[in-house]
């Protein structure tokens, strides 16, 4: 699980994409320019492949404010998705489709 008290990625995400994984669930946080301002886009997908090699249908996205509070909300969402979809993440660790 992500400890939102120690998840300080805001300054990094303002410049680069940030990615990680958590027991079968991969994730990426990135800055997204929109008409109504800059947002924090969070994407999750099952292992084993990287973002570029994973089909779009397997990716789930959510947007937050690009602020410290938005990063904390993103961490909460990541933890929630990890728990709610745990069977998918467990299955992805054992299944490799080439």
Describe this structure in words.
- A hairpin with a 2-residue loop joins β2 and β3 (37-46).
- The chain has a four-stranded antiparallel β-sheet with strand order 1-2-3-4.
- The mean pLDDT is 93.
- It is of the alpha+beta class and 98 residues long.
- 31% of the residues lie in helices and 32% in strands.
- The chain has helices at residues 10-13, 68-84, 86-94, and strands at 18-22, 25-34, 37-46, 60-65.
Task: Tell me the major beta sheet.
Answer: 4 strands, antiparallel
Cα gyration radius (Å): 13 Å
Low-confidence stretches: none
Shape: globular
Total E-strand runs: 4
Strand and helix order:
HEEEEHH
What is the percentage of strand-forming residues? 25-35%
Number of helices, where a helix is a run of at least 4 consecutive DSSP H or I residues: 3
Helix content: 25-40%
Mean pLDDT reading: 93
For the record, give the distance between the C-alpha atoms at the N and C termini, rounded to a whole number.
Answer: 29 Å
Provide the structure class: alpha+beta
Major sheet strand order: 1-2-3-4
Q: Could you give a quick summary of the protein structure above?
A:
By secondary structure, this protein is an alpha+beta fold. The protein is built from three helices and four strands.
